[in-house]
Amino acid sequence: MTKGNRDGTGRHAPPMETLSPGVPLDQIGETLASFYDSLVAEGVPEHLAALVRRVRQAEPEPEAVGGDGAGPSRAPQDRIALVVEDDPEQRALAEALLEETELEVIGCASAEAALRLLQDRGGEVALVFADVRLAGAMDGLQLAHAVATLWPRARLVLTSGHGLERPDLPREAVFIPKPWRPRDVLAEAQRAAGDPPPPVV
Question: DSSP state, 125?
Answer without folding.
Answer: E
